[in-house]
Amino acid sequence: MDRYRNNVKSDCEELLSRFQQTDSVRFEVFSKIWREMNFAQIYYGTVGHEKQAFSRLVLNTASSFFLPPFSFQIRVGGLYLLYSLYQCQTASPSEQIRLALKDWDDVKKFEKDAMDAQHFDVVYILRQLMSLKAFHFTAVPAMLAYNKKRKVERSPLCEEFFERTSRPQQLINIELLEELSNVHNLYKKLKSSVSLTSERSDSSVNLICKDLVPQLRGTVVDFYKWQQKKDSADKDEDEDSGEGTSSQQESSDRAQLLAAIKSKAYGQAAEASKSRRHRQVEVDFSSQAGPSTTPGYNRICRLSLKARTEQNIHISGDVWKEAAAATTMSRLTSVDFVPEAKPRTYKKFEWS
Q1: Are 70 and 57 within 8 A, CB to CB?
Q2: Torsion-angle region of residue 45: left (phi > 0), alpha (psi -120 to 50) or beta?
Q3: 110: exposed, middle or buried (C-beta count within 10 Å: 0-12, 13-18, 19+)?
């Protein structure tokens, strides 16, 4: 069933991406997209023993979208997806949703956040799954098996489903700024009163940061503006990505042309024919290698090993054939001249 994992994951991502575009967490919106895609037909085509294995694969793939690090809306969509897939499966008995104990704290925090935001349909679906005993609580997320691959190939997560970095905006809110401003003013008054009552005030000691609250607020606003500007720039790059296709096409064409030229050049290398590869060699003793002198040089130059080999050895297929024929004839003649053995005579027994 591992060969179907990527296809199931891509279908789930397509459904959740459509749900993300609606900017809603209502189950009614999700169910509408579910019906438009006919997602219940994902179980069609499985028969017999394949139903249990395929249902387990689909539920394990969908459960990954219900857990961090995805955004709240994607996790809501993952919860709705788990509920719908669990209800529509054709396996009997129904396959349960595998949930590790270490992830239970994230589920309870997710339920609390949904309750605080008054998303009661999210809480209802989650408690409905719990009442149906759809969760199978385990020690580890994946099922362990003997002689299993240690390094499991994991497909990359969809970056569009991740939650945007908004911790500074969540941390520095209006209530915190008001409280920080009051504490800062109180500390300023206390320090000024201490400096007035003391006999000698040291002006070099400056423990008060002026305009602390406005600076902190301005820093957070600047970060938010930079984040928005970066997102818009990324969108513009995605839109303008088609302009660079011509240059990419030209570079790819040039690379293909160079590869064709190289392959043609290497393909023209001369090779010995098969008929010449198995020919015997005959040593020609008529020519003897000797030292050769070159005019204009007093130094005696010897021929290289390659040159001497080419002079002394040459391939001759006809000579080999003649030698083989002569050997065959000599064997035949030697057999013809073998004297015949005289027949052995036996003395006849005579009765006396």
Answers
A1: no
A2: left
A3: buried
Cα–Cα dist 134/95, whole Å: 8
Question: How many residues are there in the chain?
Answer: 352
Handedness of CA 101, 102, 103, 108 (dihedral sign): positive
Distance CA 325, CA 281 (A): 17
Please report where in the chains the tokens 């065959």 appear, as a residue. 328
Lowest mean pLDDT among 124-138, 223-237, 316-330: 316-330
Residue-wise pLDDT tens digits, 75-105: 999 999 999 999 999 888 999 999 999 999 9
The answer to the question of residue 116 being in a domain is: yes
Strand ranges (DSSP E) for the chain?
97-100, 135-138, 281-283, 292-293, 300-301, 313-315
pLDDT at 180 exceeding the cut of 60? yes
Same domain, 172 and 86: no
For the chain, the domain total comes to 2
Residue 113: which residues within 8 A CB-CB, separation 6 or more?
72
Q: CA 161, CA 18: separation in Å to the nearest integer? A: 11
Could you read off the pLDDT of 138-166 as tens digits, one per residue? Answer: 998 877 777 666 555 565 666 565 565 56
In angstroms, the CA 52 to CA 92 distance is 8
Report, as an integer, the average pLDDT of 48-67: 91
d(CA 268, CA 251): 26
- Do 107 and 172 lie in one domain? The reply is no
Quick one: 70 and 185 in the same domain?
no
Residues paired with residue 283 on neighbouring β-strands, in sequence order: 313
Q: For tokens 């995805």, what's the residue?
A: 70
